Amino acid sequence: MARTARERIDGDPVSSGVYGALLDQISALDGCELQENASSFHVAHGRAFLRIHPRRGGILVNIVLDRQLESDRVHRAERVSANRWHNEVLLKDPSELDAEMLAWIREGYALTV
């Protein structure tokens, strides 16, 4: 039986903890809107700059940037247009929301302003 993104987050304490910590950080960004879809969440400020995909034991965060991130933390990076990259980072613990990760999120947010 397919479960919604909300049910998957709520059903996994690790995912729920990371998701809650991420939302706390995103709430500091002015004018962001959380959009809940069947299988994921999008964080938008005019357009989506962050996508959150529940995983067992964590969450996969897709940061939309104008460049490919060069880091061992990047699970996968995909060029989706001439000026946009989807950079995926798997977070398994709230402590992984460190200065580097938050800088990448703010960079994605800045592209929407």
Q: What is the element layout, followed by pairings?
A:
Elements: H1 5-10, H2 13-26, E1 33-36, E2 41-45, E3 47-55, E4 58-65, E5 74-81, E6 84-91, H3 99-110
Antiparallel strand pairs: 1-2, 2-3, 3-4, 4-6, 5-6
Write up what this structure looks like.
Helices cover 28% and strands 37% of the residues. It contains three helices and six strands. The chain has helices at residues 5-10, 13-26, 99-110, and strands at residues 33-36, 41-45, 47-55, 58-65, 74-81, 84-91. The protein has a six-stranded antiparallel sheet. A hairpin with a 2-residue loop joins strand 5 and strand 6 (84-91).
- Helix/strand structural class: alpha+beta
Q: pLDDT under 50 segments (min length 5)?
A: none
How are the strands of the biggest sheet laid out side by side? 1-2-3-4-6-5
Query: Outline, from the CA principal axes?
Result: globular
